[in-house]
Amino acid sequence: MDDPSQRLLRQLLRRIPAGNLKTTLEKWGRLTAAQWRTIDFTQTKSSIVQMLALCAENEFTMKHITELEMMYVIDNPNKGMWYAFQLIDPEADSQSLELTQFKEQFKSHLCELVRHVSVKIKKHTDEAVWIRIAWGDSYSRPNHLKPTYIVHHLQTPYVFVTGLSPKQRPLVSQALVLSSRYHAIKAANLSGRNLTAIRDLLMKQYQQVFPTRFPSPLSERNQSVSNPQIEREHAGHKENRLQMASETFGDGMLPQLQSSVYKLETKFRDRANQTMTEREEPFKCVVKFASTNLLESLKLCVSSGIASTPVTPLLSSIPLKGRNYFVITDNGPAPSSQMPLSQN
Amino acid sequence: MGKRDVQICFRFRSGTPDMEQHRSSGARTPLNSALVQRRSRSKSYRLSYRSCLGAPSRLGLTPALTARRLNTSRRAPKSHNISEKVSVEQLALLLKNEWKLSYVTPLYRFRHTQMRGYSRQLSAFIAAEKHQGLAVDVEAAQGSFRASFSVIQGMTETDDDAETILIQIHSKSSFPGQDEPQRALWSGWLTCVYGNPEYLNSLPKDFTCLPLFCSSGSEVLTNAVKSWFQLTFDCCFGPLEISHTSLQWLVALWTNCHAECNIQHLKMIWSVPVMPPLQITYTVDGRDAWELWNSVRRDPQEEGEGGKDEEEETGSNIDITEVERFMQGLKGHFYRHFRLDLSAGSLKQVSTALGLAKCNGRMKISNSKYMIATLTLLTECALLKMPM
Predict the structure, then answer these.
(1) How many angstroms away from the CA of A260 is the closest CA of chain B?
(2) Which of A245, B230, B328, B382 could cysteine-pair with A302, CB 3.0–4.6 Å?
């Protein structure tokens, strides 16, 4: 086993937490039963050393190691920073794109653009196409230690990317556009650590609540009053708030978004403060909302009254438009295709 | 000790009341429970800080508001070229670390001239503690510790303030003859900047008041240093949190400095109590924050009336109402966009290019020019929080 493969394997084994190592290797299935028995999974360091020895024995190449890495990443996608992109201006036949066509075209386009590049494409069970790219250039072989992962759901215009540097972005964009039969690609202004969360948010794969004229079913959700003699003064308001919060943000398990950034460049308007209101320049500020589950926090803010209803479009745009980076000017939200890749 | 609702009025006798007499009589026959007597070694009794603020109470008058709060009006921070007075290395150390704040009660029989003796005693104390099986850093476990006390000259402005003391703990390197300067494992300093002169003067002669204690380094060493101080000088340490009001003061004071020194940005971190907790970071451009601050400083009633003299006066003094108007302006702008009232949350952290302050009692000074103003505020907080 050559040196780069060993390095990648070592890095990968260190990355995989001890609990997942056994299951991942089992799934990989390339070790024989006898070799399997020799590895002691309780000791991390020694198991790594044993693994290295076994892989050398089996003469695994880079191809096998990258296969293992890809399998691990597909099963644990919620690490690293993912950025969402959207393909726009579809051609007539973009919906009927077949997997094999897409695979061939993407590979050929990317190899045309970059001299030394290693591309691996795999289709996952849930209709997502996973692409792993290791970048090289005219002078060096592909660097497998810093791969880029791309996830594309074929019948949708959404693409999720992680580990992509600004220099590589135009290459990937062009390859994607050409192979998927759209005309352009733009940043969707959505990013997060949790791939499943941003995917669910964009494609609305979580429990939606629809406006209803009769919110009384909600009373089942509220804790029922034990004493019927007690009348809750604010019961109606509370139900309304809860209904509005659910309509805006959804119900059940909400996608785990971590943050939302607003770049405000609006004028300062305050009736009590004449000086600032007469000012011509905008009041520049940046507001960042952060939480372990941002949508859950915002929903609770609305239902508890901390945020007034109706929910302001700035906050409701997060689930509605599936974005978490906004530039707000006085003329309405500015379209921002410029998203810094090095956020957070 | 609750708030008083009843106001008892006594007639004044003509003639100037003799402060000395009244003070001693107040000490022996306390008129109200606000006076706290400390059982100290010396016979004379010290008056509590709060009773000094509420001077009329000793004469029998009960003030309508118990004076147990921060000053409502402060001098606007002026740029102090402190680098001219304080040594460069010491200043660099003060600016380098993020400090954990505590308050200290006055030290009994602390002498600025016995720095060497204290260094030896503290080193011995820490060695003894280590011997008793105190958990120590792995890296420092090889050598023993060497403490050094020094005085930071030049930080005090008035005669009442005691000179700042700097304490550093280095590890004695196991290889003798190393020329490179040792990095301090632990640093701490005690200071008093513009402390309340009435209170400082009311202390008996043997007590030195350095109420603000800043430490940076391992918790174990901090506790060792505190224990030594408590044993040697019969004092008391306690955690000093920076209250919401103090953080708002820092917002205003630092923004006020933008005219002379670019604060770059005003960053505030709020925490909203929902589950899971929501953190809101509100960063305002430096210049825009300063313009908003300026616009709330001019009293709307006085606009157009005040001449140049009045402007001079208002310029140098900042009132709490102006601070509140500034915060209201910032919160209002936020509300207009997000319809979320920041008052429902709590202000946790404030930072500008001049420094950083967290509500859990951590602060960092990044610019030496305005640090006197920051330290004045923190000294006041420490004096107020002291149980004495």
Answers:
(1) 10
(2) A245
d(CA B386, CA B377): 15
**Which of A160, A129, A142, A137 has the alpha carbon at shortest distance from A66?**
A142
Contact (Cβ atoms closer than 8 angstroms) between residue A25 and residue A41: no
| Distance from the Cα of residue B350 to its chain's centroid | 16
What residues does A37 pair with on adjacent strands? none
> How far, in Å, CA of B367 to CA of A265, rounded?
29
For residue A4, how far is the Cα from the chain centroid?
29
Q: What is the pLDDT of residues B362-380, one digit of tens each?
A: 999 998 888 888 999 999 9
**A31 touching B, CB under 8 A?**
no
The rounded distance, in Å, linking the Cα atoms of A247 and A218 is: 12
Confidence (pLDDT) at A340 = 36
B61 by Cβ neighbours in 10 Å (0-12 / 13-18 / 19+) ranks as middle
Determine the residue among B272, B348, B351 to mutate to test chain A binding: the one whose Cβ has the most chain A Cβ atoms within 10 Å. Answer: B272
**Two tokens, residue B93:** 């150390």
A107: left (phi over 0), alpha (psi -120 to 50) or beta: alpha
Task: Answer whether A303's CB lies under 8 Å from A249's CB.
Answer: no
Nearest chain A residue (CA) to B265: A285
- Residue B246: name the closest of B378, B346, B155, B360 by CA: B378
Shortest CB distance from A307 goes to which of B294, B332, B338? B338
Q: Helices (DSSP H) in chain B: which residue ranges?
A: 19-28, 49-53, 88-96, 115-131, 197-202, 219-233, 244-256, 286-297, 308-316, 320-338, 371-385
Chain B residues lying within 8 Å of A269, measured CB to CB: 336
Q: Is the dihedral of CA B62, B68, B73, B78 positive or negative?
A: positive
Q: Is A327 on the interface with B (CB under 8 A)?
A: no
Does the interface predicted TM-score (ipTM) exceed 0.85?
no
Nearest CA in chain B to A298: B278
Residues 6+ apart with CB under 8 A from A266: A282, A283, A328, A329, A330, B337
Q: Do the Cβ atoms of B274 and A297 come within 8 Å?
A: yes
- Least CB-CB distance to B272: which of A264, A284, A301? A301
> Scanning the structure block, which residue is given the tokens 């005669």?
B159
Contacts of A296 in chain B (CB under 8 A): 275-276
Strands B317-319, B73-75: pairing kind: antiparallel
Token couple for A339: 């998203």
- The shortest C-alpha distance from A151 to chain B (Å) reads 29
Contact B383, B211 (CB under 8 A): yes
Distance CA B64, CA B5 (A): 8
Q: What is the dihedral of CA B112, B117, B120, B122, to 10 degrees?
A: -50
Contact B337 A314 (CB under 8 A): yes
Q: Which two tokens stand for residue A35?
A: 């070799």
CB contact under 8 A, A289 and B279: yes
Strands A82-90 and B73-75, sheet pairing: unpaired
With contact defined as beta carbons under 8 Å apart, do A177 and A185 qualify? yes
The pLDDT tens digits of the residues spanning B235-270 come to 999 999 999 999 999 999 999 988 888 999 999 999
